[in-house]
């Protein structure tokens, strides 16, 4: 490759949901993918108070089944059904939910995983920096050499510094 030719940057990877939507466009499974979004947008759409008392449990032929914690909440949600349907459909971008069926029961809260930030990488020793420079010195392409050096540095910094890792 000539020095004047630059390698084009790769575009950012697409989200799996976007890939699936593209692949399933026009297929029967496309509708199922849309239906699955209901569970993803439920909490934000109805708000934390309702989400704590009511959870979607099923969807069939436009009817969303929602498990509700107790009778007072069931009565309240009966009055809010049309508003909830309108907000869900607006969020989904189509008129998918045509009715909401409320069932008494204990709604299960979704399992939330709390991600802890990774530990800060340690500083590389002079010996490790020299080792990276030696290993990448033979690479002629400056951008490739720099990228590989960064990857090696990140790898070494993620280790705890013991020999033999």
Keywords:
165 residues; mainly alpha; GMP Synthetase, Chain A, domain 3; 2 domains; 6 helices
Summarize the helices and strands and which ones pair or pack.
Layout: H1 16-24, H2 28-46, H3 48-53, E1 54-60, E2 63-68, H4 71-92, E3 99-104, H5 126-136, H6 142-158
Parallel strand pairs: 2-3
Antiparallel strand pairs: 1-2
Number of helices: 6
Rg calc: 26 Å
Beta-strand level of the residues, as a percent range? 5-15%
Q: Could you say what the CATH architecture of the largest domain is?
A: 2-Layer Sandwich
**Class from helix and strand fractions:** mainly alpha
Strand order of the largest sheet: 1-2-3
Overall geometry comes to elongated
SSE succession: HHHEEHEHH
Main pleated sheet: 3 strands, mixed
Fill in the CATH topology of the largest domain: GMP Synthetase, Chain A, domain 3
What is the arithmetic mean of pLDDT? 82
Q: Roughly how many Å apart are the termini? A: 36 Å
Q: Low-confidence stretches at least 5 residues in length (pLDDT < 50)?
A: none
CATH class of the largest domain: Alpha Beta
At the fourth level of CATH, the homologous superfamily of the largest domain is DnaA, N-terminal domain
* Number of structural domains: 2
Q: How many strands in all?
A: 3
Helical content stands at 40-55%
